[in-house]
Amino acid sequence: MSPRPIAVLLAGFLVLLGLATPAVAAPVQTLTWTANNSTTEYASAPTGALPGETTIVFENSEATGNTTGMSHTLTFDTSTPGYNHDVSLNVLANPFDPQNGRHEATVTLTPGKYRYFCTIPGHTTMVGEFVVSDGTGDTTAPAVTAAVTGNKDQSGNYIESATVTLSATDAGSGVASVEYQLDGGTWTAYTAPVVVSAVGMHMLHYRATDVAGNTSEEGMEHFTIVAGQGDTTPPTVTAAITGQQDSSGNYVDVATVKLTATDADSAVASVEYQLDGGAWTAYTAPVAVTGAGEHMVHYRATDTSGNTSPEGMSHFTVVKSDTTPPVVTASVAGTKDADGNYVGKATVTVVASDTGSGVAAVEYRVDGGAWTAYSAPVAVTAPGAHTVGYRARDVAGNSSAEASVAFTVVAGGDTTAPVVSMRVTGDQDGNWDFVGRATVTLLAVDTESGVASVEYKVDSGAWTRYAAPVVVSALGEHTVRARATDVAGNVSAEAPGTFTVVAAPPPPDACPVSDTRETVVIGEVDSQVENIDIGNGCTINDVIDENAEYASHDRFVKHVKAVTQELVANGVLSSGDRNRIVTAAIESDIGGAPTAGARPNDVRKLL
What we know:
This protein folds into 6 domains: 29-132, Cupredoxins -  blue copper proteins (Immunoglobulin-like), CATH 2.60.40; 143-226, Sandwich (Immunoglobulin-like); 236-319, Immunoglobulins (Immunoglobulin-like, Sandwich); 327-409, Immunoglobulins (Immunoglobulin-like, Sandwich); 419-502, Immunoglobulin-like, CATH 2.60.40.10; 519-606, no CATH class. Helix content is 9%, strand content 41%. It contains 5 helices and 42 strands. The radius of gyration is 37 Å and the shape is flat. 28% of the residues are buried. Residues 1-25 form the signal peptide. One of its GO terms (molecular function) is hydrolase activity.
């Protein structure tokens, strides 16, 4: 039987004998949430609890790090499937409210999982959950184990340091905490492996407690730390590349990389390699590289004393068993005159393919000039007759025959394509997805003949002439492409944009019983500002909360300033409407008389 049921039975027995009087039951626990300047997460929150009457504390104050006067709510979810819906809690806290941002509520929790969140617009990622375990049914303590690791000498002593890792499990209510005690010191919460480096004998005790309050028996590990042996020399590591090679030294179809590491002092602890700039990978067996092309492998080794060798490097080329040269073609594009000459500019595009080892290089030359590596379409603008030659080579070394295209360029006007850019705007959630819809705005510029048209297409749709910003509201991931054409017929490169549209969550009603007066009225003063819903079911009058108790009139005005400043920041109020509401607060008698001597003409000085 666990300690809690025994204590309860004993107390009941004493009451029956008349030796004790029943006491009023207090809440079994207190759960505390805190908030600060963050709009993405609570500063602290519980993860587990026991069932029964519970005191909920929500503090959003200067003491918890809120230095901006920002409001937050602690609201329990009562609609999402998969969670308990038996607690209705919606606490609005502000550092300048009558409770100085600290609020308490008493609720009754039942076993299961609860979800909580903040309803303030713009704070949608402030969300979490906690589990209530059936503590009355769990009487089994957690299981906790310890593992000691490190470099040992022949006597089993740890050289320079030992690392103790604790692990705890509980099949009932779940693990609440794990603690350790080193060499008879104080019990300390375990959060990460414990590194012990002091030379000498050590003893570490450990224990774990579950959510139901059951604590395991203490476990114990003892070990000895000795001074290091002075190994400061890193290992030696070498690489050998093997495989069938052609006459140029390239490896045909496959190259095998074998690494060998030795250490004369301690021992080799690990060997790693990195292929073509990828991630470092533990080396356990020779590595076969089959991809055609040039490769580079880096390697290193670490000994048991922590010394790591300098990085070594080997490079090699893999080719395929390929005797067929690439296929290469060229096309000429541009604006032609009546005689077929290209006006102002001709653009030559070269395309090469190879089904064997793959294309290694494509080259071109203009009018018998030097061969040049081809990387993008070639623009020829000089007037006159031209010949562009082209060729390609594959990874296996096979070269295509040289081919060429001939054409004539005559003087013309604009040969420069427009520049087109894209901007995607809209409301975004914490994952940078657009909520409800995204608006695509295109801009094209041409400094010569001028822009003739701008086109776009959404996903796999048809190209469409752009006339105004495009609203995309279909849910899912989208790709929008844009292009522009100038008066001379030059077409820009396509500008792509990718984004995701997600559904807008229904805003929760944070104020079921709301102040729905048409304008914001404070005391007897009407600000003439429309009393609108701020986006979560609460009106401006609701968040001003003129009926609460305030220590002074100045305190109430400070509260109104903080609340309305946040509404301006969220786009709910204009600065002018805020000033009218603050003026009404100053002129009201909420919290006591206004500041002595204040007159309507002095209101602006108080804002």
